[in-house]
Amino acid sequence: SQQGEEDPQALSIQEGENATMNCSYKTSINNLQWYRQNSGRGLVHLILIRSNEREKHSGRLRVTLDTSKKSSSLLITASRAADTASYFCATDGRGSTLGRLYFGRGTQLTVWP
Amino acid sequence: DGGITQSPKYLFRKEGQNVTLSCEQNLNHDAMYWYRQDPGQGLRLIYYSQIVNDFQKGDIAEGYSVSREKKESFPLTVTSAQKNPTAFYLCASSIVDMNTEAFFGQGTRLTVV
After folding, report:
1. Chain-chain contact of B104 with A101 (C-beta, under 8 angstroms)
2. Residue in B75, B56, B63, B113 with CA at minimum distance from that of residue A98
3. Cis peptide before B75, with omega less than 30 degrees from 0?
4. What pLDDT is attached to residue A2?
5. Considering only Cβ atoms within 10 Å of each terminal Cβ, which end of chain B, N or C, has fewer?
């Protein structure tokens, strides 16, 4: 399977702390993306990192990509209760259908006020 | 407001019935996707379409059917052949390109009663 796998499955932290989630995948990719899902809602795109990039920032989000290890991490700094959600990584597959994404099972993040 | 709209939000089906989930987008995207999400699981691709009047099976197409008669619309029919249809269904759209993000609807929760 080309599916990414997030680690940990669940993460519980206090407001103000940093949250780090990891994603591993199996095949060569053109890009890796992170999405957020609030309970019972659709997914919202957070950030896309291309295979030739190593790090990308967006506000309080920092994403790294290590293609040699086929892994990525998502860091949320100074977390807030509103960051409570599930976070998914998604990969395309190099040579796969353009636009088709493969999702992991997600990390459930809980931020306590 | 540009976006992707799924309806209904909640749907109840009796065993043996077919039901159709609606997905409409006004983002002018060529590609549309249907995913299934089970509790604590990632997203699994049911069907996708990259152009009007054409669609492809995803990883779990059995018991489902789709049509793509208009660019804006990609309805999903859950047939009686789908043995375990209770799930959260997500529709998404994107442009057909490398390094492109997907835009998701808010989902339809289908329950078999």
Report:
1. no
2. B56
3. no
4. 53
5. N
Longest dimension (CA), chain B: 41
Using only C-alpha atoms, what is the Rg of chain A? 13
Q: Note the pLDDT tens digit of each residue in A57-110.
A: 999 999 999 999 999 999 999 999 999 999 999 998 766 677 788 999 999 999
Q: Per the omega criterion (within 30 degrees of 0), is the bond before B85 cis? A: no
Q: Is B23 on the interface with A (CB under 8 A)?
A: no
Eight-state DSSP code of residue B70: B
The verdict on B31 touching A (C-beta cutoff 8 Å) is: yes
Residues contacting B70, CB < 8 A, separation 6+:
B52
User: Is the minimum CB–CB distance between B39 and chain A shorter than 8 Å?
Assistant: no
Any idea what DSSP says for residue B73?
A: B
Supply φ then ψ for residue A4, to 5 degrees: -80, 160
Note whether A42 contacts B107, CB cutoff 8 Å: yes
What type of residue sits at position A85?
A
A94 touches chain B (CB under 8 A): no
Q: In a 10 Å sphere around its CB, with 0-12 CB exposed, 13-18 middle and 19+ buried, how is residue A84 labelled?
A: middle
Per-residue confidence (pLDDT) for residue B1, from 0 to 100: 61
pLDDT for A15: 98
Q: Which of B31, B42, B102 has the CB atom closest to A106's CB atom?
A: B42
